[in-house]
Design goal:
5 helices
């Protein structure tokens, strides 16, 4: 279920991102549409469809992040794939406890934002890893 979790997460995250960015829907509207479509369709097309709908809902929460945090589709793909991975790892944790989907989405976004911060700090202190090409 790892691959379906990540693929579902990426699909839902990119769907929510596109609804928000290109269709100009609010974050809440985009998340609601993604969660509704996943919840109504996935249980009928996959044996673990209920779980995958929860993964999609989690990724739709991550897609509610601001443009400053996640501004490009490639970034959204990373964050929503990470959401799917975290949901897979935590699928048997906190079962029945409210807020699990949002917590997993928040962990994915925070991990991504932390990684971006670490890269910026590294580059500012030690420069780019790319070798400098001087024009001689």
């Amino acid at each position: 279920m790892l691959i379906p979790s990540v693929v579902s997460g990426v699909s839902a995250g990119l769907g929510g991102f596109a609804l928000r960015k290109h269709w100009r829907l609010s974050s809440v509207q985009a998340s609601a549409i993604v969660a509704l479509v996943a919840g109504l369709s996935l249980p009928y097309v996959h044996g673990e469809g209920t779980y995958l709908a929860a993964v999609c809902t989690c990724a739709s929460y991550a897609a509610m992040s601001s443009e400053e945090t996640i501004g490009r589709p490639s970034q959204m793909a990373i964050v929503s794939g990470l959401s799917g991975l975290i949901m897979y790892i935590a699928q048997n944790c906190l079962v029945g406890v409210g807020g699990r989907l949002g917590s997993c989405a928040a962990l994915a976004v925070l991990a991504f934002a932390g990684w971006q911060f670490a890269v910026r700090v590294f580059q500012s202190r030690w420069g780019s890893l790319r070798p400098e090409h001087s024009a001689k």
